[in-house]
Every structure is written in structure tokens, then in C-alpha cells.
Amino acid sequence: MAFDPISDILRLASVESVVSGGFTAGGDWAIRFPAPDKLKFFAAVRGDLWLRLADSGETVRIESGDVLLLVAPEAFVMASDVSIAPVEAHVLFSGRTTPIVAAGRGDDVLMIGGHVRVDRAYAAMLAEALPPLVHVRGSAPEAQAMRWIVDRMVDESAGDLPGAGLASTQLAQLLFLHLLRAHLASGAPIRAGWLGLAADPRLAPALRLMHERPDQPWRLEQLARAAAMSRTVFASRFRAAAGVAPLTYLAQWRMRLAVHALRRGGVPVATLARELGYASESAFSHAFKRIVGVSPGRYVAAPDGAAEPFPVDLAS
Q1: What are the C-alpha distances in Å from 151 to residues 121, 147, 180, 312?
Q2: DSSP strand pairing (87-88 vs 30-33)
Q3: What are the chain's domains?
Q4: Whose CA is closest to 20, among 219, 153, 160?
Q5: 75, 76, 79, 86: which is closest to 62 by C-alpha?
Q6: Per-residue pLDDT for 1 more than 60?
Q7: Per-residue model confidence as pLDDT tens digits over 151-181
Q8: 143-158 vs 164-185: helix axis angle to the nearest 10?
Q9: Which of 166, 181, 196, 307 could form a disulfide with 190 if both were Cys (CB 3.0 to 4.6 A apart)?
Q10: 104 and 27 in contact (C-beta within 8 Å)?
Q11: What is the sign, positive or negative, of the torsion defined by CA atoms of 163, 165, 166, 171?
């Protein structure tokens, strides 16, 4: 299988997409949703509507077949007309007994949606790689595959099928991946960071070395040679894509692997240090504290949520 750094990051981040439900609507209607604390995705199964973000005031027209990923933590309104006084979403969805609820009169519109769960250590990294709103039009080439996924999601939510919960989660995961692909294929500027780095095929050979053999003492000239570039050109291109120098990225990648291993437990710090290429446990602990912000021991001992990992992100 081809080297896939995006999958590497998403696995470490424990990314999981979950379908939360949807609504039908018709006539004059408007729904106000609170600012999400997770990435939110939406798919317009049928009908057209408006979306307005509360803080920025950005207003976009959503048409049948469109799929969106809301990254900005902003409240928003979905409506037939954004001038209509909205119903609060919690009023509409409270006490529901089915995944799909009704708003307004009729069912000209059918929207389904969900959210993306991300390990707390990676949430900022994922959000900072993306624009506030990713909008894939139903007419875009990338939308065809997403339309099939959305149709299957509707099927799973409509009937009492065996394994529907698992099927919906897997389909939502696939939809999120297609949203990332569509964003990369759109030609829109990609922010410096892990996504920009992963999307650069010229840097892939060097990135492969760092991801597959993080224990090796890679030097800049070795990585540049793998990418068939001079040291100067390689370092410049890497920094432009990733936002950091190559060896800084390598150190931070090692620490992301370390955090993942420490959270799972069962790996002595000395073993982890050796597996990540450090000459001693003390050298590893010093690097860990410098990048993560606390020592490995304090990180493991801290109550869940007490240690703020990675105050310095890959794109800083």
C-alpha cells in the first residue's frame, strides 16, 4: 500500500465521525444551532436552504447534493430564509424518538449531519489545517462518491437494520475522508501544517523516512537526498508546507508517537526512548518536556484532561 501520512495522523488523533441525526423541513422555517465544540458535517440529501454563520455573518446557499464541514466554532442558522426568527435546535431535537425530526411544514428539505470526534491532543491541529467552512458542491466531481455514502447513511438511519450503528459510523468516517480529499482537490490554498505537508508529493519520500523510521538519526542531507533536492531547496519547501523545519517536524512527530504510546500505557519510558531514537531516557524526557510541556512521568500521572499536550503545534 502507498505511503499515506494523512492516515498516520488521523489514526494517532483517533478521529471518529458520528452521525447524530437530521431534519426535514418545508415552508417557512429557520433553526439556530449553538456553536459546536467539535467539527460538524452536513449533507443536503434533498432541497435547497441557507446557512448563516453567527460570528462572521458568512451566508452560503446549500443545494441538494452539497456536503459541508463546519470547522469554525460558531453558532449558525439553517433556514429557508435567514430573516425568519429561528427555532432553537435544542427545542426541536429534545425528546426525539427518531433520528430525523420535522421542522416547518412539509419535507422539501432533508438534511443529515454529525460530528467528528478527535483526541484532545490533536483537535487544534486538525482544525487549524482547514478553513472555517469546507463546502463541496453537489456538482463537483468529488461529490459523486459522497452522494453514494450519504444515500447509504439515510438508509441506515431510516430502518431498524442489524449493525446500523456501526455502519453509520463507518460511513460517516468515509464521508469525512472524502471531504478532506475534496478540499485538497479544490485548488484552494492549504495552510502550512501537517495537511499541507502530507499533500506535497515531492516531500513524500522524506516524510516516509521520518514516519516509518522515527528511531533513526536522520540528517537534513539524507532527507533532502530522498526527496531528490538540494539541502537548501528541500529545507525551504518543507518549511513552506509544514510551517516548521524538517528536523523540528521529526522531533514533534516522535513526541506525538510518544504521547500516543503513553496514553495506551504499558510501555516503559526507557523502552519508548530507545524506540524513538534517543540515546538515553534523560535525553528523551528533556525533549518530551520541551515539546509537550510536561515530563513523561507527569504526563502519565496527570488526571485525564489536566495535562495540556502540545502547546506548540506542528504548524507553529
Answers
A1: 33, 6, 19, 40
A2: parallel
A3: 5-185 (2.60.120), 195-301 (1.10.10.60)
A4: 153
A5: 79
A6: no
A7: 998 888 776 778 888 888 899 999 999 999 9
A8: 160
A9: 196
A10: yes
A11: positive
SS (H, E, C) the chain: CCCCHHHHHHHHCCCEEEEEEEEEEECCCEEEECCCCCEEEEEEEECCEEEEECCCCCEEEECCCCEEEECCCCCEEEECCCCCCCEEHHHHHCCCCCCEEEEECCCCEEEEEEEEECCCCCHHHHHHCCCCEEEECCCCCCHHHHHHHHHHHHHHHHCCCCCHHHHHHHHHHHHHHHHHHHHHHCCCCCCCCHHHHHCCHHHHHHHHHHHHCCCCCCCHHHHHHHCCCCHHHHHHHHHHHHCCCHHHHHHHHHHHHHHHHHHHCCCCHHHHHHHCCCCCHHHHHHHHHHHHCCCHHHHHHCCCCCCCCCCCCCCC
- Calpha distance 177→9 (Å, rounded): 12
When pLDDT is cut at 50, 70 and 90, the band that residue 104 belongs to is: confident
Across residues 198-219, what is the average pLDDT? 94
- Cell numbers given for 69: 464541514
**Would you say residue 311 has pLDDT above 50?**
no
| 165 or 237: which leads in pLDDT | 237
Q: What is the mean pLDDT of residues 178-199?
A: 89
Rg of the chain in Å (alpha carbons): 22
Q: Beginning with the edge strand found earlier in the chain, give each strand of the sheet holding 109-117 in spatial order.
A: 100-104, 16-26, 109-117, 39-46, 67-70, 133-136
Bridge partners of residue 65, in order along the sequence: none
Q: Tell me which residue of 315, 270, 311 sits closest to 292, measured CA to CA.
A: 311
Mean pLDDT of the chain: 89
